[in-house]
Amino acid sequence: MNTRQPSEQTGDWVARSLASVWHPCTQMQHHESMMPLVPVSHGRGAWLFDADGRRYLDAISSWWVNLFGHANPRINTALKDQLDLLEHAMLAGFTHEPVIKLSEKLSALTGHALGHCFYASDGASAVEIALKMSFHFWRNSGKTDKREFVCLRGSYHGETIGALAVTDVQLFRDAYGPLLQQAHVVASPDARAAEAGESAADVARRAAKQLEQLLAERGDKIAAVIVEPLVQCAAGMAMYDPAYLAEARALCDRYGVHLIADEIAVGCGRTGSFFACEQANIWPDFVCLSKGISGGYLPLSLVMTRDEIYQGFYDADVKRGFLHSHSYTGNPLACRAALATLDIFEQDDVLERNRERAARLTTALMPLAEDERVMHFRQRGMIWAFDAITDDPAFSSKFFASALQHELLLRPIGRTVYLMPPYILDDEESDSLAARTHAVFDEVMRG
Ligand SMILES: Cc1ncc(COP(=O)(O)O)c(C=O)c1O
């Protein structure tokens, strides 16, 4: 257990950070009471350490970005090599090997169904790009009325104004409501909504009916439907059946609407296949990737799209082009980190090894899954979640604080506890993660 008092150095970091850094997604006053600020000096493998040697198993991959551990030797070597070659060059008018190779490799992973990659830095920027590209494509095709978007109940696509407009998490969007364009919000296929006798696939088909109704009524005004394939992560790891994606693809085809798959959280093997959409045997019109694509090293996001959509912008007229950019678009260091990440997938047969890892952790979590204070225990690929049966509004912050005492970094969403560990846990780490999560849960539920 982590019980020692902070040393002068770590205590000093906390005080200086609170005095000068505005931390993300946080009511800063809470750092003075229920949400302790954790100073980190270094990371190794699945672990984060502070300067006093306290350690935390990063069981949520530092907000779902870290795939192969901290200070991964192979990604480090690639980055050190790249650092001596080219740290950055603008991508407008210039190109470089890492961005070319990465685009080719990603396209090959889709069987070349999505032939072009457009780059940015954060996930929300990729969502903005996909929305803008969809609208602009229809405009270039003479369909200027197609300017509306559809998202799912409980969707999360990021915090910038455009991405927030297709986000249905009231806590994040309420304050900015007057700034946001209205989107259509349709039923989520969340399998937890199953009525008696209904399977997850039944829930998916029921939700798809609502989408169909909307597209039938307003398909000529709608540019795109945006979904988080298979798992709506920020909504509390709402998992759903691939049947929904297959239905959504068919409906989008029928009504001439784009399908945007936001795989920022669920791509890169997180749900068991490299792209989550593969489990529904579909390709969307746009895929957004970020987070894990750089192994959790550097901000990198991208939008992959079909060649027909790319061709819709290809013209002598500059205004028909996609005139969007960010200064760090296609940064060579970030692309090189991504290439090293893809190499690890290939060389270590990661998707197959993850199936073994997932089976082990699921077995180790069974006593927790069967705890009578737990409901909706669920798993897909390398994501596990369950809902605590509690009304305590402070459940999440109590759990976070208690987990730190047990050397775990876990940050429940409301009363949903989830694990999204990096793809490197050994058997001992897996078993210990499961046992400690249960111990923390028991401690918090006993009050
Ligand atoms: C599905 C999804 N889309 C978009 C984003 C936004 O990404 P970023 O925080 O990098 O802007 C996130 C972040 O959690 C996400 O989970």
TrEMBL record:
Subcellular location: Cytoplasm
Class of the enzyme per the UniProt entry, highest EC level: transferase
Keyword entries, A-Z: Aminotransferase, Biotin biosynthesis, Cytoplasm, Pyridoxal phosphate, S-adenosyl-L-methionine, Transferase
One of the record's GO molecular function terms: adenosylmethionine-8-amino-7-oxononanoate transaminase activity
EC number(s) from the headed UniProt entry: 2.6.1.62
Cofactor or coenzyme needed: pyridoxal 5'-phosphate
Main localization of the protein described in the UniProt heading: cytoplasm
UniProt site (Participates in the substrate recognition with KAPA and in a stacking interaction with the adenine ring of SAM): C25
Organism domain of life: Bacteria
Catalytically driven reaction(s): (8S)-8-amino-7-oxononanoate + S-adenosyl-L-methionine = S-adenosyl-4-methylsulfanyl-2-oxobutanoate + (7R,8S)-7,8-diammoniononanoate
UniProt: substrate binding residues: W63, Y156, K291, S325, R411
Binding sites annotated in the UniProt record for pyridoxal 5'-phosphate: G123, A124, D262, H326, S327
Modified residues (N6-(pyridoxal phosphate)lysine): K291
Oligomer status and interactors: Homodimer.
Family note: Belongs to the class-III pyridoxal-phosphate-dependent aminotransferase family. BioA subfamily.
Job of this protein: Catalyzes the transfer of the alpha-amino group from S-adenosyl-L-methionine (SAM) to 7-keto-8-aminopelargonic acid (KAPA) to form 7,8-diaminopelargonic acid (DAPA). It is the only aminotransferase known to utilize SAM as an amino donor.
HAMAP family, A to Z: BioA
Protein name: Adenosylmethionine-8-amino-7-oxononanoate aminotransferase
Organism expressing this protein natively: Noviherbaspirillum album
Name of the gene this protein is made from: bioA
